[in-house]
Design a protein that fits this description.
heterodimer; A: 393 residues; alpha/beta; Quinone Oxidoreductase, Chain A, domain 1; Rossmann fold; 2 domains; six-stranded parallel β-sheet; B: 198 residues; alpha+beta; Alpha-D-Glucose-1,6-Bisphosphate, Chain A, domain 4; eight-stranded antiparallel β-sheet; binds nicotinamide-adenine-dinucleotide; binds zinc ion; Polyketide cyclase / dehydrase and lipid transport (chain B); COQ10_START (chain B)
């Protein structure tokens, strides 16, 4: 089969790999019909997440048709399913408490050692990501093996397009959980850093959860325009002093909740960020946290900080004092996708959430490398890329 | 000021520990800085498994099941109610065989075993099963004693497949948990020809 493969920093290619096989009783194999490139993939592309090996197949946002099932899979051949990017067993303490991304049983034991050292606990697992989280082959491919297929995949009702439901795999539930972690109350102003796919869904979800005002911060006009479509006010950080603007737009109080939908590769030519950048170039494991620092300083006293943006290692100059002295609450985490998929599918069906507005490009799988390059270099115009293995190239 | 006080206390505790006068804490032996038990080194791990105690006990009690999650063991044959023959993998496709005997057995609570006198490998093991709080299942704690590198066979084995006995013990317990909770052991491999193991 053909698959998008990582070969090194800023070097991904579509190569030929053997088709996956059923390895365990609960496995299923999908023929992929649609798969997206995520901001998280850009962290891999840039080599700032440790634990990738040359030859790894990427992709954790995908859907397709079931073509093979293990004896204990609950799926049937021919079903159309969307697969959560987090692989979860459904049986452990964490899964049973709906903390699906913290699953204890899906990360192969040999792969657990690194995160046990780095984070104090072994991490759960995900498709097409680092070997810290399982080293599972991803779905930017013609076929993908789906372990624990009895827990994750959701069957899609007939008549719904791939593009309407594909983002149930990650960014829609991630935007939802980001807004949920902001614990929105009536009258709240929620500030969202990043108008990428995650930030844009966080804006939409915060509105649905009843925020009085949502303010989105980025520097790409086209992305900010998309946030505006959903009723957000916007701040372009290249033109405006962000913290001052937020204070003025909230009557001197500061936002009640802040969401960092940027993650470890914040843009911006400011002192802290340039220092972080230098460290990140020297070794992976250093995070670039300008957006998060700014969010912590902007958040009102006693406010809430939600962190869907991915960080993988260490961050210097972390304003711990701001957190303690202002009494902030911080919540984050890889999304517990399985917790949200059914509810969000219903909201899509009812027309409450728009899921297709952000797709700027649809490409055949063969052009995946071009998709990565442009999603990375031309963020203003390339807002979300969906790869279609079946599309003629 | 506060920092200095802290420093003094830590130093004092360390000195007391070295002199052997410190009060023993509640931590299990395998987490002590001095983790020797006689001439055996102790490694081990606790895991909480979301299954009933009796089910876990009876799976472990049948030693022929152990190779399903202890991948360094090729097979175990019961030669009597308390005795079994273990065949473990050794370098370059070779195997080493030794006899073990059950030394302690409390139904649904604990199992202990030990290599018999004169075995090629000296090892002992002990596993306990306790109810976890608030219906979280069972806390399984295993401790394995092994001969630290030294001796002829011992040195070879330690180097090649017991190099990291602590990691190995941790992996084994986690595989046991996976198997008991989900019925399978997770693998990131996509092909039967390259099932990755440690
Ligand atoms: N928690 C999860 O489970 C989860 C899931 C998916 C993605 N993520 C993470 O969410 C983050 C965003 O993902 P995405 O797909 O939207 O990525 P993206 O790269 O498309 O978007 C990031 C946006 O942040 C903007 N930005 C950069 N620096 C900024 C700054 N200083 N202030 C304000 N905006 C800034 C960029 O211009 C860009 O538009 C990434 O870190 C990704 O890894 C997390
Ligand atoms: Zn993603
Ligand atoms: Zn689980």
């Amino acid at each position: 089969m053909r698959a998008l493969t990582w070969h090194g920093n800023n070097d991904v290619r579509v190569d030929t790999h053997p088709d996956p096989e059923i390895m365990n009783p609960k496995d299923a194999i999908l023929k992929v019909t649609s798969t997206a490139i995520c901001g998280s993939d850009l962290h891999l592309y840039d080599g700032v997440i440790p634990g990738l090996k040359s030859g790894d197949i990427l992709g954790h946002e995908f859907m397709g048709e079931v073509v093979e099932t293990g004896p204990k899979s609950t799926l049937r051949k021919g079903q159309r399913v969307v697969v959560p990017f987090t692989i979860s067993c459904g049986q452990c303490f964490f899964c049973q408490n709906q903390l699906f991304s913290a699953c204890d049983n899906t990360n192969p034991v040999e792969k657990q050692d690194a995160s046990e050292k780095l984070y104090g606990h072994a991490m759960g697992s995900a498709f097409g990501y680092s070997h810290l989280t399982g080293g599972y082959a991803g779905g930017q491919a013609e076929y993908v093996r789906v372990p624990f297929s009895d827990v994750g995949p959701i069957v899609i009702p007939d008549g719904m397009d791939d593009d309407e439901v594909l983002f149930l795999s990650d960014i829609l539930p991630t935007g939802w959980m980001a807004a949920e972690n902001a614990q929105i109350e009536p009258g709240d102003t929620v500030a969202v850093w990043g108008a990428g796919p995650v930030g844009l869904f966080a804006v939409q979800c915060a509105m649905i959860m009843g925020a009085e005002q949502v303010i989105c911060i980025d520097h790409y006009p086209r992305r900010l325009e998309l946030a505006q479509k959903f009723g957000a006010k916007i701040i372009n950080f290249e033109e405006t002093h962000v913290r001052e603007a937020l204070m003025e737009m909230t009557g001197g109080l500061g936002p009640d909740a802040v969401i960092d939908a940027v993650g470890m590769e914040a843009h911006g030519f400011v002192v802290d960020n340039v220092l972080d950048l230098v460290k990140q170039k020297i070794a992976p494991g250093a995070d670039r946290g300008h957006a998060l620092r700014q969010a912590l300083l902007a958040c009102r006293k006693g406010g809430r900080v939600s962190v869907p943006g991915v960080y993988g290692g260490m961050l210097d100059k972390w304003p711990l004092g701001a957190m303690m002295e202002k009494g902030l609450q911080i919540r984050g985490g890889q999304t517990h996708v399985q917790k949200y998929t059914q509810d969000l599918l219903r909201r899509i069906q009812e027309g409450q959430i728009d899921t297709t507005f952000l797709i700027s490009h649809r490409l055949p799988l063969e052009k995946a490398a071009e998709g990565y390059k442009n999603f990375h270099d031309q963020q203003n115009e390339w807002t979300k890329v969906v790869l279609k293995p079946g599309m003629a190239s | 000021m506060a920092q200095e006080t802290h420093h003094d206390t830590a130093d004092e505790a360390q000195r007391a520990d070295a002199a052997g006068t410190a009060q023993r804490d509640d931590a299990p032996k395998r987490t002590r800085r001095d983790d020797k038990d006689g001439d055996l080194a102790i490694v081990g791990r606790s895991v909480t498994i979301n299954r009933p105690r009796a089910e876990l006990f009876s799976y472990w009690r049948d030693f022929t099941n152990l190779p399903s999650f202890m991948h360094a063991i090729e097979r175990i044959e019961m030669t009597g109610d308390r005795r079994s023959t273990w065949t473990v993998k050794a370098p370059v496709g070779q195997t080493v065989t030794f006899e073990t005997e059950v030394t302690g057995l409390v139904e649904n609570e604990e199992i202990g075993w030990c290599s018999v006198e004169g075995s090629q490998i000296k090892t002992s093991g002990h596993v306990t099963f306790k109810d976890a709080p608030a219906g979280r299942g069972t806390v399984v704690s295993a401790e394995i004693g092994y001969e630290p590198p030294g001796g002829d066979v011992g040195r070879l084995l330690a180097k090649l497949f017991m190099a990291e006995p602590n990691i190995q013990a941790r992996h084994e317990l986690k595989r046991f948990k996976m198997l008991m909770e989900t019925g399978e052991i997770a693998t990131g491999a996509n092909h039967k020809s390259d099932r990755g193991d440690d």
